[in-house]
Amino acid sequence: MATLPQLTSSPTIIVAGGFFILYILGTVIYNLFFHPLRKFPGPKHLALSRLPVTWATLRGQRAQFRLHLHRKYGDVVRIASDELSFAHGQGWKEIYGTSANARGTRAIRGVEEEGGANSVVTANGDVHTRQKRLMTIAFSEKSLKENEATFVKYADKLVQRMEESRGSPMNMSDWYNFTTFDVIGKLLFDESLGLLENSRYIPWVESVQQFLKAFAIIVVLNEYLFFRVFWNLVPHSVLSRQRQKFLNYTSDKLARYFDRIKEEKGRHSILGKLLEGGITMPELQQNSPILVFGGSETAATVLRCMTFLLFKNPRCMEKVVKEIRTRFSSSEEITYDVLLGMDYLTACVEESIRMYTPCTNGLPRVVEEGGSMICGEMIPAGTLISVAGFSLLRSPNYYHLPDSFIPERWLPNAQKLDPGFAKDDRNAFQPFSYGAHNCPGKKMGYYEIRLIMTKVLWHFDLELVPKDGGALDNWDHIENYQTYVKAPLWVKATPVKRGSV
Predict the structure, then answer these.
(1) How far is 113 from 123, CA to CA, in rounded Å?
(2) Which domain holds residue 168?
(3) Domain-located, residue 151
(4) Residue 439 labelled as part of a binding site
(5) Where are the beta strands (DSSP E) in 87-187?
């Protein structure tokens, strides 16, 4: 029997080791000097492997990782051997537009193919056109106004719970989530979730962030062959369970909803309108998680980030509070139509979204055969591409003083206030993606954010409370997996004595 020393010195092992070393050296030389992406700027070590960008994603720091690279290397950066990151205004149209020669990555397509259908995010051609038309109708301004009472009901319920706190610190990160999920539960499933009523999460809502984290990790790991093999061999992995937990809860909600509409109940909900429009059951199952996320987590993220930014900028807090309290003499006057005319409030919302965009990274695309001209560069087929939303909205190439919270940049007279705002490129501001694949619930999200923030600031004076790490100095390094992990935001709410402004 051969001993260990004999094995390690055998010709077969030596030859295999030699070939492995040659393969590594050959890959390094090819990626640095012969790869089609060699001309694009970026650190040399990132051109050698996907491991650095993968590690940044696993740590929840992908957005910050890309921001650092774009600040140093420019609008287009090679962040892996086969991947380019774009912090360029044209990127939205040329990567996600209808004429873009790119498709969803293997991971995104594969997740949806398990359900036998595509969602409005990844569908193409006639399927996408039909789904988007139905979504546009379901989330139209007409539909929004028909459901205005539902939004007001839960915004007022939040106010009631804040009054009941009697000045005790409240984690507004949770309370904003309670409110937006109660709203979307009623709008989608015609079901009251009871989060505001019971002051606690239900398992379905708790599973949302686990789902988003698992999805973001699956997308980046799926570029590795060994992970795809592992995923197929071990379908009940931790990541799979986290993703499936949320999907199972959502399927259960759908099943109960279908039982109710058989009894002629709930037909006026958003799902009811989609069903009446002809959306198929598999399509509804694929779209439901997107509707849940887009209608709840996005608005809650903006609300907590906006609250934090107003605390950090007292001048802005004072100005928006004055606008709200001088405009409305009663809470009942706070309506959809009037909120549209609140210029400084709207500017604060836009600036909060710019500073902490709810979707930190655009979904990756793969360039199709024939390549694609993007931002003036011919990108070869097979290249992974995406817009780094967080980086673009913090880019000094597109925004004056990009790291400063200055709502005035969004006002009509912005350039008179500061000539530097003339360089701001509002076309680069696409936080809800672009074109045919943009978020159909954008109007709903803006209304919900305006309504809840206005109700809170009309009724209460807010004070940030340093509790359990709640008073963070900087949220720029919060973990993010497509959107931000909830950071605590402890607030003391004191009812306003009417007459103060």
Answers:
(1) 11
(2) 98-495
(3) yes
(4) yes
(5) 102-104, 170-171
